[in-house]
Amino acid sequence: MKHFALGLIMSVSVLANTLCSPCAWAQATAPDGAHEEPVCDLTDAVITKEIELMKLNCNLKLHNLRSPWAGRRWFAYSLINSTLTSCGAFINGAGRFSYLSSKRIKRAPKDLFEHAGWLRVGANIDMVAGSTMEAALDRLRDARDSKHGVDLDTMRRYAVKLQKQLDDLLLHRKEAIAQSHPASSELSA
User: What share of the chain is helix, strand, coil (3-state, %, to 5)?
Assistant: First the structure.
């Protein structure tokens, strides 16, 4: 599903690039083929870099989605923890209430309260084991992402590089427009 969404976004972007490119319209409407070649080429390059930046953003968002099983696993850990803790607390409370009088306390099973304590220990072990497993899975995923070059640091460096290239292209485009239309540069100043 995520690859379909990415493909759909990219095809819409390419279609928008083709239909909305000022250079395509300028070439189609310019008389005698007179159009501003450097400005159009720079505009196309800017649009291409923007699409590349948008692709990077989509890839990053799709890649960093957590597994749907992570939430389910955490729910299972929490459910087991709360169930075992509640059972231990119920055994302690009901056992103490049931054998409250001094005559009845002698008939209480010797290991009743010990088992209730072990249930609580088991609940804590379950949560510690579950959180350790989730942390290990996160580290494995981070190592895999770093190996494939899709970790956050690499993606950030690539995005900063793309942004710098885009800024340079926009500056060159502004200079090309100023050279081809001196009157427009006076108005913008």
Answer: 85, 0, 15
Region for residue 21 given its phi and psi (left: phi exceeds 0; alpha: psi -120 to 50; beta: otherwise): beta
Q: Which of 7-11, 35-39, 143-147 has the lowest mean pLDDT?
A: 7-11
The DSSP secondary structure of 86-104, one letter per residue, reads: HHHHHHHHHHHHHT-SHHH
One-letter amino acid of 106? K
pTM above 0.85, yes or no: no
What's the chain's length in residues?
189
Both tokens of residue 172?
């060159």
CA 112/CA 98 separation, integer angstroms: 12
CA-to-CA separations, 186 to 35, 37, 38, 173, 182, in angstroms, rounded? 21, 22, 20, 16, 7
